[in-house]
Structures are given as C-alpha cells and as structure tokens.
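Something for you to look into today, if you have time. I want to see for myself how the chain folds. Leave the record below and I will have a look.
***
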Amino acid sequence: MLTTVPLFGAIPGGPEMLIILLVLVLLFGANKIPKLARSTGQAMGEFKKGREEVEDELQQMQEGATGTGDREEETREEDSEPQPEIGADADSEPEPEIGTETESERN
C-alpha cells in the first residue's frame, strides 16, 4: 500500500491559519501588515518581470544561434570580393616588382 507524503508537509487549515495570522499581528502590528503585503506583492511582480526578461533574452539568443547559418554564407560571399586598400599607401603608386624599372629610373 503506497501513501503519498506532501513535500512541504500538510497545508495549514482553519485553526493553523488563525494562529499564523495572530502571530503576524503580534510581530508586525495591525498597521504594518497591509504595507508588508503590498511590498511583498510588488517584490513578486518585479521578480516575475525580471524572470520574463531573462527568458526573452534566452529565447532571442537561441533564435540568433539558429539563424546564423544563412548570415555566415552571406558574409563569406562579401569577404571573397577584393577590398580596396585604405590608408596612406592607397594614394601612392604600387611598388614595382623586383627586376623591373620605373619610369623615373628610365629617364
């Protein structure tokens, strides 16, 4: 015969809940309980928002990782085209090969 044991023990019923509420009133006072409940709700809302942001980021990263295959092929095609030189040497004449004379050397 199998019996199931709850993970966190029995869920508090009527009398237990009254005792818990009485202890809360004694510890925090009747005036602070609504503020405490409000701040707890706000904290839970912020936690939920943060968790959703992290899940969205992970989703975007996964979509980005699967979508890079097409982009890699496009960049390879772009990289295979010769690029003009940029810098100080781009304006000067190309250097002659070894064993050849330039026009200024001939004159």
